[in-house]
């Protein structure tokens, strides 16, 4: 049974968002990392990139599959967790602790389309 | 099986050789070669005697598993038996000694084979013309997409930049489209595993270059709405690409050209019985309908009025050149021998028997493995893991990977696993037409035995294979910290 952290927002494509003011911290859920298996590579965007809700901003690769990362909100990438470049396994170790990017949101109302932890439980079955 | 994993360099001892060089007939001596062109140190090459060399490669080959060793039900790969007569034909000195730069008057026989082969493939598929130049399936996909793009551009239509790909597609489809500079739009499958026409409709428009489809699709299901799909795509000005990876069940029965496809590739190494599985060489001929014939790559082989054959090297409307010469001729030759040996009548039996074998296994095993789509399949089908994975024992359940590993203990090659991505525990089985009922029954018995083991004690599967020389390689470490060269 995978963990679902309370207080975060979730997308149907298994990204989580933690809101810190107008900054969205984005990662993937524990369910997503468990489905992927051992992650071997994280394809990250660059700082300063503009990302658009619903579009892919990177990818995860595991021995089993490659999976796109979809932006849960639009905005500008202000920080990238570069530790993942050399240690992609951090996501397997703790998917909620090890965020992927931080985004300065251009439209905070997009958050309303995301699910709370309770609603996400239904998706992550 | 004797375990053997030495490198030839480990056998090396200075001064040993397995060859004798002929006398140097050239007049030049080393002193005449400019100093800058001479190596400063000797190359690192293994030095071994002939018996050591022969044993080395024989021992390595015995670690291998192939269609000549046993049943190989690898879904989507059509691992049918490779008839030995194909090899005899390809080994004929008149073919083996050919050089691609020979004058065409001296290679009329080879050009005739090339010309007749493309005609035979056109007859089998309902296409107008074929190029045999692409060297693999995905190479064929790229060639086909280049033809589609070229066709639109020649009409002055620059707006068609998107290709529709079903979510059940082979991964090479979106990859080939991306390499060709096209954007990918995904269309969903319905609950019946087929492309959903209603989901497709809103995606069509003036920006669509075409759609790539596999029929039967990767679930082994015939896309029964193909006529309607073809009409819709053509109506919006797009073209239909047929991924021929799953052509085997349709051989001699149904033709992609008649379904409305405009461009397609075939995998000679799948459908037409040439060897594959070790990385090649393959062959991915591309066929087109009449309006695209001028876009085919060069060089092409044409028949002149006097009955001679000639190579056409350039064309203003061609999508370009896709291989150094004219494809993997040895593979084309083997596939041509296969087509001639089967003949018009027997070609129809291949697809029927492949379909019968797949349905026989599916129906025999659905009491032990989850069958997400229970309808009649074509040449292959997909299970979604075990019905009873043994988790009621309190141990973690056995997965599809564990079933595949356990099969190795019984001397069978594993099926394709975790593809297609529509199901989490996909196990994709394609028996082909060349297996006897006894072989199919033996496989069914073993799959039942494995299901019983899983239910009773899933650890038997978790720890499999028990008998293979290598058990479970550490794929994660290999992917995270690859060692790609041997340090000598």
Fold and architecture overview:
The complex is a heterodimer of chains A (125) and B (488). In chain A, a hairpin with a 4-residue loop joins strand 1 (9-10) and strand 2 (15-20). Chain A has 125 residues and is of the alpha+beta class. Chain A has helices at 30-36, 83-86, 90-93, 117-123, and strands at residues 9-10, 15-20, 23-28, 39-43, 50-51, 56-62, 66-70, 75-80, 101-105. A 6-stranded antiparallel beta sheet of chain A has the order 1-2-3-9-8-5. A 3-stranded antiparallel beta sheet of chain A has the order 4-6-7. Chain B has 488 residues and is an alpha/beta fold. In chain B, 34% of the residues lie in helices and 10% in strands. Chain B is built from 15 helices and 12 strands. Chain B has helices spanning 50-62, 84-90, 93-96, 108-125, 137-154, 172-179, 197-200, 226-235, 256-259, 268-271, 329-365, 400-409, 437-456, 459-462, 475-480; strands at 129-131, 162-166, 183-187, 208-214, 239-244, 263-266, 286-288, 300-303, 309-312, 381-384, 416-417, 426-429. In chain B, helix 4 runs parallel beside helix 11 and helix 5 (137-154) crosses helix 6. Chains A and B meet through loops of A and helix 15 of B.
């Amino acid at each position: 049974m995978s963990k679902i952290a309370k207080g975060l927002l979730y997308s149907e494509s298994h990204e989580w968002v933690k809101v810190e003011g107008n900054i969205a911290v984005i990662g993937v859920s524990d369910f997503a990392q468990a489905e992927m298996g051992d992650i071997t590579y994280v394809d990250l965007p660059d700082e300063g990139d503009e990302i658009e809700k619903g579009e892919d901003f990177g990818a995860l690769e595991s021995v089993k599959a490659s999976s796109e990362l979809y932006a849960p909100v639009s905005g500008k990438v202000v920080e990238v967790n570069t530790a993942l470049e050399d240690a992609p396994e951090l996501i397997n170790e703790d998917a909620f602790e090890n965020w992927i990017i931080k985004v300065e949101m251009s439209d905070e109302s997009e958050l309303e389309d995301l699910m709370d932890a309770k609603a996400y439980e239904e998706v992550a079955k | 099986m004797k375990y053997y994993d030495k490198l030839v360099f480990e056998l090396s001892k200075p001064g040993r050789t397995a060859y004798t060089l002929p006398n140097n007939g050239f007049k030049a001596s080393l002193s005449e070669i400019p100093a800058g062109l001479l190596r400063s140190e000797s190359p690192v090459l293994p030095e071994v005697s002939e018996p050591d060399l022969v044993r080395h490669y024989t021992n390595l080959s015995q670690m291998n598993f192939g269609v000549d060793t046993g049943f190989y039900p690898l879904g989507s790969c059509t691992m049918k038996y490779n008839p030995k007569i194909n090899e005899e034909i390809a080994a004929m000195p008149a073919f083996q000694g050919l050089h691609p730069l020979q004058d065409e008057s001296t290679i009329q026989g080879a050009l005739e084979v090339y010309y007749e082969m493309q005609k035979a493939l056109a007859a089998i598929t309902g296409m107008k013309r074929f190029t045999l130049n692409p060297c693999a399936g995905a190479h064929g996909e790229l060639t086909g997409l280049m033809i589609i793009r070229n066709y639109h551009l020649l009409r002055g239509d620059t707006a068609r930049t998107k290709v529709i790909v079903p979510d059940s597609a082979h991964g090479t489809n979106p990859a080939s489209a991306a390499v060709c500079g096209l954007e990918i739009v995904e269309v969903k499958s319905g609950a019946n595993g087929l492309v959903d026409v209603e989901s497709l409709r809103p995606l069509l428009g003036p920006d669509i270059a075409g759609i790539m489809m596999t029929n039967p699709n990767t679930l082994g299901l015939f896309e029964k709405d193909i006529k309607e799909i073809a009409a819709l795509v053509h109506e919006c000005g797009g073209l239909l690409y047929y991924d021929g990876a799953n052509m085997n069940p349709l051989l001699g029965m149904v033709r992609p050209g008649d379904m409305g496809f405009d461009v397609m590739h075939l995998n000679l190494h799948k459908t037409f019985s040439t060897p594959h599985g070790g990385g090649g060489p393959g062959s991915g001929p591309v066929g087109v309908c009449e309006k695209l014939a001028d876009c085919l790559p060069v060089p092409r082989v044409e028949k002149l009025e006097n009955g001679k054959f000639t190579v056409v090297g350039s064309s203003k409307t061609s999508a370009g050149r896709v291989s150094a010469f004219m494809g993997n001729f040895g593979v084309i030759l083997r596939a041509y021998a296969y087509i001639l040996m089967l003949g018009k009548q027997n070609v129809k039996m291949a697809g029927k028997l492949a379909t019968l074998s797949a349905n026989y296994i599916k129906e025999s095993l659905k009491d032990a493995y989850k069958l997400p789509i229970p309808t009649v399949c074509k040449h292959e089908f997909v299970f979604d893991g075990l019905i009873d994975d043994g988790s009621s024992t309190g141990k973690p359940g056995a997965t599809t990977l564990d079933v595949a590993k356990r099969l190795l203990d019984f001397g069978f090659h594993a099926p394709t696993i975790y593809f297609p991505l529509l199901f989490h525990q996909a196990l994709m089985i394609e028996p082909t037409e060349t297996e006897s009922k006894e072989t199919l029954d033996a496989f069914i018995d073993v799959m039942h035995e494995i299901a019983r083991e899983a239910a009773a004690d899933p650890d038997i599967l978790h720890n499999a294979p028990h008998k293979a020389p290598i058990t479970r390689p550490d794929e994660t470490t290999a992917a995270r910290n690859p060692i790609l060269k041997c340090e000598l």
